[in-house]
Amino acid sequence: MSRKTTARVAVLGTGSWGTTFGKILADGGSHVTMWARRPELAAEIAKSHRNSDYLPGVQLPNNLTATANLADALKGAQQVFIAVPSQSLRENLAAIRPHIEPTTIVVSLMKGVERGTGLRMSEVIAQGLDIDPARIAVASGPNLALEIAREQPTAAVISSQSLETAQAVALLARNKYFRTFVNTDVIGTEFGGVLKNLIAVAIGIVDGVGYGENTKASIITRGLVEMTDFAVAQGAKAETLSGLAGLGDLIATCQSPLSRNNTAGRLLGQGYSFPAVVKQMQQTAEGLASVAPVLELARSIGVEMPIVEQVKQVLDGTLDPKDIAPHLTTDSDEPQGERTNDDREAPGGGVVWRSFKRAFDQLRHGRGSASGD
């Protein structure tokens, strides 16, 4: 899509996902400045157009550069994309705040819940930068960084309370291999990205134990219902969890060895302790950090999450990984009817079917929709 001027954007965080999103934006035509905490990494990206630590073998575009100076990275940026570990976001925002322009759009690339407050990342950004939520957007979907960096075709969702903001971000965050849709369900979009990480840890655990596809398919299916229960109780739309930010992200994260959360779970299933897994992981597995705050939120609103409960027991060392079977947990031994996401809706077509139909219509007509993924 042609533009009269080249947008200037900043990406804060040079891990695999931050660097990949910088490549997405640069390949879409924007001039991208990345901020790296380590000067040597900033120099490698700026001079060699590579990030050998996180994206080995990937050549970055010439219109993507990097700096270790935060003020320089943010200067003149029309949109700022943040990709730092979720639990360090608030402290980073304190440094970012003096350099944000009054009209700058801020986009969260993070998938986590803040410990202690239970806030979603967009809520932490609104507090930490003291800006209108209408200037904040979030990006989510089935987005395994290395696959996208290798330019394998992928779709994602940009969500904001303001449709105009979501569309402005989506226009920049698209290119020949990366397609973005928009919606205004920030709660559902963010919680989809958070909760699928927890289910992916569970899948990794049973994979590490050596259980097969039946066990994993059962957990994924019941996990989606569990995710939807939680998100809807928080104010999300059920159909968002059946779209790219929920079901799509869940499938990609649970079945791919590239998933950090899947890898962390697999190590747990193989018998490694929680501290040992954290030590082995070179990058943050957000699912591990989000288990406790998500469970606190779930208990406060009366939502049962047996999958997440058993993941926490494995993390705490109180449940042998081989005994994990959260999809078998029920309130009684009496046979129960299977409730799916579609049971939430009146006759006339289930949530999942309408989500797939909406996505097909969007692809067919070559545009995003305000109401769907």
CATH class of the largest domain: Alpha Beta
Mean pLDDT: 87
Structural class: alpha/beta
The end-to-end span amounts to 20 Å
Shape by Cα distribution: globular
GO biological process, one term: glycerophospholipid metabolic process
Organism: Mycetocola zhadangensis
Pathway: Membrane lipid metabolism; glycerophospholipid metabolism
GO molecular function, one term: glycerol-3-phosphate dehydrogenase (NADP+) activity
Detail the topology: elements first, then pairings.
Elements: E1 8-12, H1 16-27, E2 31-35, H2 39-48, E3 64-67, H3 70-74, E4 79-82, H4 89-96, E5 105-108, H5 121-129, E6 136-140, H6 145-149, E7 154-159, H7 163-172, E8 178-183, H8 186-209, H9 213-233, H10 238-241, H11 244-255, H12 260-269, H13 274-280, H14 286-300, H15 306-316, H16 351-365
Parallel strand pairs: 1-2, 1-4, 2-3, 4-5, 5-6, 7-8
Antiparallel strand pairs: 6-7
Helix pairs in contact: 4-5, 8-9, 8-11, 8-12, 8-14, 8-15, 14-15
Keywords: Cytoplasm, Lipid biosynthesis, Lipid metabolism, NAD, NADP, Nucleotide-binding, Oxidoreductase, Phospholipid biosynthesis, Phospholipid metabolism
Main location: cytoplasm
Pathway: Membrane lipid metabolism; glycerophospholipid metabolism
